[in-house]
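Sample log: Vancomycin resistance protein YoaR.
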Amino acid sequence: MTFWDAPTDPPPPDQPPAPGQAGKTKRERPGGWIVILVVLVLLLLVGGGYAAAYGMAGDKVPRGTTISGVDVGGLTRDAAIEELEQAFGDRAEQPITVTVEAASGEKSDEVTPSEIGLGVDYEASVDEAGAGQSWSPARQWDYFTGGDDVEAVVDIDEERLDEQLSALSEGLGTPPKDGKVTFTRNGVKTVDPVPGEAVDLDAAEDAIVAAYLGEEDSAELAVEEAQPDIDDADIQAALDEFANPAMSRSVVLVFGDNKIRLQPKDYAPALSMVPDNGVLVPKIDEKTLNDLVKGATAEGKPVDATVELVNGKPKVVPAKPGVEYEIEDVVSVFTDLLAAPEGEREGKVKAEVVEADFTTQEAKDLGIKEKVSEFTTYYPYAEYRNVNIGRAAELIDGTVLKPGETFSLNDTVGERTAENGFTIGYTIQGGILVKDYGGGVSQMATTTFNAMFFAGLKDIEHKPHSFYIDRYPEGREATVAWPTLDLRFQNDTDYGVLIHSWVVPSDGSAQGEVHVEMYSTKVWDIEATKSERYNYRAPATRHLTTPDCEPNTGWSGFDVDVTRIFREHGEDEIHHTEKFHTSYTAADTVVCGPPPKPDNDN
């Protein structure tokens, strides 16, 4: 038998297993288990060493490390922080002399680190240096093989630093000037940018921080060439992207069913462009834009249409819808529209809209188109007359009476008080002159009554003066007193009536003038006739001893009749007539003082 025939040896590689050996498991040699055991023991030994290394490093700063010159290597995190506090804590109050040099001169000042918020962030500095626990092999490697010199992490208030450096460098060099884009009613204007000289803030900050960390007491800075933040390219971008499109054509804001068209010349004062991170961005003045919108709408409650005189002619003033909106919504829509192309410059604003009760069309339908009557009276100079009649005319002016409405002078003018703009003057009370607020307002009543008379409107209530005043037409005048006596008349035509009233004050050299005009569509041609005076009454004499006594020379009373004749406008035939009967009492003579004693002949 050869060597290969040994029963314990395997067959040669190229021979199949011997008969009876197929499918049987081979036994492992005892040496394989010994190798595995040895590897496990070695791993345990290495792991123990790594754990020991981790325990030695802990949260310490890598050995040999310095932070801005302060040796913190091998210290725990807390100990390193304490070391930095001892090194830098007192420096916060140690002034640093900062010198700025320029061709035009030199200036120096002291900067205290604490005043500009300059200080070391101790925790961040220590962490940046590598303190902190970690199982990472790299961390363990850094601890045992580290030793870098790292810069401390510092905080600084750049705004406060900028303020101090700006004050320090004032007068040194020429600051750069940013380019500008402005808006006027005539279009877009630009201001070219201008280079200048200024302190480089980044370099200044680095120099001051270096002095602080190096415990130096001075830092030198220089004024260098500086370019403006907004240059020519920024100006051109602002023109192309916003300014020129914004002023190219009108924009339309839509509130409900109402459209408000704003023209560039009107909204230009609301536009501006301001620097923002080196570019110009649009800015909208909310108040100016809001005023424009309010001018075309009525904030809150709607405003009815009306009619007013423009250059002496009646003109309809359109109604304004009541609109409630948030100005932020208006600004947002408006800003988007400014940059939109033609055909897309209309936008809807979120708003609550309430339409006016009296529309623009209804105002047009009033037919107020021509002067239908006018009347003028005159008065002698008295400053109280200028004040009181002028104030009454101001309050009546612009009154519009719709068909069927009744005018009330007392309701329109209100109580005659100082708060309402009136002063003390002479009034007739109890047949004599006394002083009271509103003296002279009856002249406004008389003038308004006559304008109503010749407009052909319906007399509802009027009362002539108790005695005749010769500057008024006989039988065609009225007096008023708050609140008992009123002047009231009704617009009984099919058209509206606009009342225009004003006063030309007396200056002592000329009489004052009171004017009242009425505008409508002319319905009647009015003629007035007057009877002769009749039923005369002689005045009496009264003696008054009261402190407010005003002497007066009396005159006779009488009756008179006035007839108003109505003809349809343009016709000769009398349509109807109306009679006004007036009975004037005698104006008593007033003597201030006791009556004379009767003669006694006995």
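Observation: The chain is about 25% helix and 30% strand.
Observation: The CA atoms of residues 464 and 478 lie 4 Å apart.
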